[in-house]
Amino acid sequence: MTDYPFQQVDVFSKEPFKGNPVAVVIGADDLSDRQMADFAKWTNLSETTFLLEPTTADADYRVRIFTQRGELPFAGHPTLGTCHAWLTHGGKPRGDMIVQECGLASLRYAAKADGWHSPRPSCCAPVR
């Protein structure tokens, strides 16, 4: 099996080990649904996300979210943590907002005046 880099992100906290953790698997396009489910069980976290190439023209990247029991179309802290991981692994938005594709819809993340930051719940909204 191929090695897949992943990052555990502390969401909603700047202090290590105080946030809501999510594992983010980078470059997971060739993993099967079963492998993603198994990986999520292995991390033993409430959610594990998989960072993928987008399937829509407006998105910068795509995310799939798995729990210990199955896949979710959307969950708040996993989408935020995945955006942070995408940025820290060199992700560059095509426009003035980051557009994340997930099972529910596309989400937009806004930038702050001094650059991109770890996203907060107040800066994302479904694309209309």
From TrEMBL:
Pfam families: PhzC-PhzF. InterPro entries: Phenazine_PhzF-like. GO terms for molecular function: isomerase activity. Gene3D superfamilies: Diaminopimelate Epimerase, Chain A, domain 1 (3.10.310.10). It comes from the Bacteria. GO terms for cellular component: cytoplasm. PANTHER family: ANTISENSE-ENHANCING SEQUENCE 1, PHENAZINE BIOSYNTHESIS PROTEIN. Belongs to the PhzF family. This is Phenazine biosynthesis protein PhzF family. It comes from Tropicimonas isoalkanivorans.
